[in-house]
Amino acid sequence: MEQAHRPDPAAGVGFPERTAFIRRAAARLCLRLGWAPLHEVRLANGRRADILALQPGGGFVCIEVKSGLRDYMADGKWTEYQPFCDQFFFAVDTDFPRGILPSEIGLIVSAGLEAEMLREQLPVRLPAARRKAMLERFAWLAAGRLAALQDPMGVADMALGLNED
User: Which of 6, 35, 59, 79 could pair with 86 as two cysteines, CB 3.0-4.6 Å apart?
Assistant: First the structure.
C-alpha cells in the first residue's frame, strides 16, 4: 500500500476514531474497485451493515469493520449479515490479529486512509427476490441521503427512511 511509509493517522486513537478510519479506508477501496459503498445500512433482519456496497452487475458486498480484537470477540452476529450479500468481508487495520478471522471470509486491511483486499470470499448469489428488494432499498437510501445533503431542510427524514434508529 502506498500509504505505508506515511504516519498512520489512526495510530493511538480510540475505538470510535479507529473504526471511522478503517471504514473510510474500506469505502475508498470500494470506490477504486468500482463498487458503490453506503455506510450504516439497516438490513431486513434488523442488523446494520457497516458498509453495503453495490458491485457492477448488481452484486452486494457487506463489509464488517472491526477496530480490534475486543470488538471482534464481543460481536458474534456477523454471520447474520451473510444472507444479505453475495460476498462478505471483514475490514481491519494492520494491527489486528488476522489469524483469528475465518479463512473462508473476505479480508480487507487498512493502513491509514488506504486499504487493500487481501482475500476474497467466493461469491454466493442472492435469491432474485431478495436482490430486487435490496436494490430498491439501496437506491432509495442513497437517493434520500443525497437529497438530505443537498437540501437538509427540505427532506423529511421519516418519509425517506433516513432516521433508522
Answer: 59
From CA 10, how far away is CA 19, in angstroms rounded?
9
C-alpha cell at 158: 421519516
Cα 55 from Cα 97, distance rounded (Å): 28
32-74: pLDDT as tens digits:
999 999 999 999 999 999 999 999 999 999 999 999 999 999 8
CA angle 149, 153, 155 (to 5 degrees): 70
Give the list of residues 6+ apart from residue 58 with CB closer than 8 angstroms, or none.
131, 135
Mean pLDDT in the chain?
Answer: 87
| Contact status, residue 62 vs residue 85, Cβ threshold 8 Å | yes
Listed residue (88, 91, 80) closest to 59, CA to CA = 88
Please say whether the beta carbons of 98 and 92 come within 8 A: yes
| 95-108: pLDDT as tens digits | 999 999 999 999 99
How far does Cα 3 stand from its chain's mean position? 21
Residue 146 neighbours by CB distance under 10 Å:
11
